[in-house]
Structure formats: C-alpha cells, structure tokens
TrEMBL record:
This is Cytochrome c, diheme subunit of cytochrome bc complex peta. It comes from Pseudoxanthomonas daejeonensis. The keyword Iron-sulfur does not apply. Coiled coil: none annotated. Pfam families: Cytochrome_CBB3, Rhodanese. The keyword Heme applies.
Amino acid sequence: MTHRRLRTAVFLLASLSAGAASAQQGPALTPEGAVKAEHNYQQYCALCHGKEREGHANDHAPSLRSKSLLESGFPMTIREAIAYGRQGTPMGGYIDEVGGPLTRRDIVDLTLWLRETAKVEPLEMDYRKGHDRIAGDVARGAQVYRQNCVTCHGPEGEGVTGTALGNAAMLALTPDHFLRHAIVEGRQETPMPAFGKVLSASDIDNVTAFLRSRSTGWSTATRALRTPPPLGQYVINPQGAAPDFGELKDGRYVSASVLDRELRAQRRMVLLDTRVASMWQMAHIEGAVPVPYYANREEAIASLPRDGTWIVAYCECPRAAADSVVKWLREEGGFENTAVLHEGIQGWVSLGYPVVAGDASK
Ligand code: HEC
Ligand code: HEC
C-alpha cells in the first residue's frame, strides 16, 4: 500500500508540481510591490548583502544578484531563507511569525524583485527531477571537499568567507540539484569559483553527495535512512499521553515550539508530511508519514486511527497543502483532533528543530 502510494506520488509530481511551483511564486510583482520591495531591501538587507545586492558587505553574506543563485531558485529555497533565516548563521528570519518585520507577501515580492532587478530568468526546470538525489561516492567527495572547499567553507562546513555548507537548516531543504548548480556554475562576481571547469562531473557528484550526507549533522558517520512506516503503524509514542497543544491558533495551528515540546515529552500522535514524497525523503520530522496532499482520500482516511489520537499535518508552502489535508480529514473523515504546523517544515528546520532523512524507494 505504502509502496503504491509513493510510486503514485512520483508519477503525479510531474503534473502537479509545475502548477504548485508557479502558485508558490504568488501573484506577479506590481509596480507598487516593487517600490516597497526595494525599500524593504535597503532597510533590512543592504547592511550585509550590499546596497547593490553584490554581497559580502558584512558577515560574508552571499550575493543576491548572481545569475546562478537566482536562476536555480527552487521556488522555496530563496523565499524561505528570507522568511525563517538559517539558524546558526548571521542570516535571521524576517517573517512576522518569527518576530520579523515582513509579511509573507512582502517576502514573496522581495524574492520576485531580486530576480527581476537582476534580470535573471529562472531555468526551465523539471521539478520532478528537481528533488532527486545525486548519487556519488561520499568518501571520495570528502576528499574533494578537503582539497577544494575547506579554505572558504571551513573544515566542518561552518563557513569562513563562503556560506556555512554544513548548516543543517540549509542542507535539509536545499535540493541536491541546487547545490550542484552552485558548484558547477559558481556564483558570478563572488569568490565562489565555477568548478564545472575544474572538477570532473563525477567529482562534482561526489562532493554533492558528501554534502548531502552531512544534512542531519556534520559529524555523523553514516546517515540512517528511514523507510515509511507500514500502514496502520502511524502512531508515534503509542504508549504516551495525548499532547497538550493548548488553544490552536485560528482553530487549527500549532507552533513549531509547542509541537517540538510535545514530541520531546513523548506524546501520542500521528504526523503527516503532506508534501510530495521526494521531499519527505530529503528531510522530515521523525515519525512523519508521507501522505501527499493529492493522496487518495479514502485510503488515507481508512489508514488513520479512529480513537481520538491527535493528527498533525505539515507541508512547506508553509500551510496550504497541510490546510487542505486537515480540511478533508475534518469534513470527510470526521477527525476532530487535527492540527497544522504553523511554520511548516521550512520554518521548523530553519528554527533549528530536528529532522531525519528518508528512503522512499523501499
Ligand atoms: C546580519 C547580516 C544579514 C542581514 C541583515 C541579512 N542577511 Fe541574508 N544572509 C546573511 C548570511 C551571512 C547568509 C549566509 C548564511 C549561510 O552561511 O548559510 C545569508 C543568506 C541569505 C540567503 C541565501 C542565499 C544563498 O546563497 O543560498 C538569502 C536569499 C538572503 N540571505 C536574503 C536576505 C534578505 C532578503 C535580507 C533582508 C530582508 C537579508 N538576507 C538580511 C546575512 C544577512
Ligand atoms: C575561494 C573561496 C571558495 C571556494 C574555494 C569554494 N567556495 Fe563555495 N562559496 C564561496 C562563497 C563566497 C559563496 C557564497 C556565494 C556568494 O557570495 O554569493 C559560496 C557558495 C557556495 C554554495 C552555495 C551555498 C548556498 O547557501 O546557497 C555551494 C553549494 C558551494 N559554495 C559549494 C562549494 C564547494 C563544494 C566547493 C569546493 C569544491 C566550494 N564551494 C569552494 C566561496 C568559495
């Protein structure tokens, strides 16, 4: 059952993600939106990223106008870096829900403005392939890293003049193809060289695979890949008491800090990862079951416990997919104890809460 669902997920990705991706860009940038975005940029970002978006004004903040960054922007990578920041680096979170000065709309506009101002067209991308793993020899990749990358990115990926490549928030949700693109093309007008001209294609794969292997912690020797739990065994902490989520915001939302607290307290619940399964594979909250927003509703409803166990759904959008799943769980399934993670998994990861990687091929 699980196998079939996952294969369907990959199959449907082709048709659904293209639409989802453009929807995630939000409406087009209006002239007023552009004026406000430029103002926000100068007020909040120029200090580190430079008045002309050239980067490295402070804290070695990357360029926000390099072609290879802007063209490869998977819809969420740039936007959510701005929204939630990258915990452990000087890049803070700017969205109001984590105490920042910008609304989600401001951030969508800022992202569009960065690309339009730099006159960069996004690459035609096959989103189905976009989240695929890049296979490589991790041990050889470690060697490539030591020889070519350490001076700027640090022996532990902590970042020196280059960004913190070992940052879990960055790695957990940055697709392999985004990393590889930066390595091959470099970042124009910055110290990041284009290794496409220097390293063999297989060494670029190897170093990408090495970085990916650090995504749940730089010093872990091997990364345990989780397989989706079998049908009917979705409950986390089956012996635990019910979680105390307090009053849900808007009758639906639980914050990352409260969810983390209740998971640590080993409360009984089900976690649903409502993104495409390839994203569950990159990083997910431990114990979460991949039930994509386009899953067969009857099948999903039949697979969930009927004893009042809390069900928490999350996505990266940061709420749209999980909202839609919880809506049908409530309306069609009659599940009352349901909630949505307010910050989504991007927020969860960027705020420093733990994730594990999965293997959806099993
Ligand atoms: C205090 C300095 C500072 C400020 C202010 C700041 N940033 Fe950053 N930003 C950084 C640093 C440092 C990084 C790299 C973090 C890392 O090592 O991963 C970064 C990373 C980013 C990235 C990821 C780029 C990439 O190459 O993956 C984006 C996008 C970004 N910042 C946008 C913004 C925007 C937009 C603002 C204003 C709303 C802003 N930043 C404000 C320091 C800053
Ligand atoms: C001479 C310094 C330097 C070297 C050597 C270098 N980098 Fe970088 N790298 C940077 C800088 C600086 C950035 C940020 C780009 C910018 O300023 O816009 C960066 C960015 C990146 C990014 C994008 C990260 C993000 O957050 O978006 C990746 C991936 C990366 N480097 C990988 C590598 C790998 C792998 C190697 C070795 C094969 C390497 N780099 C070697 C300086 C370097």
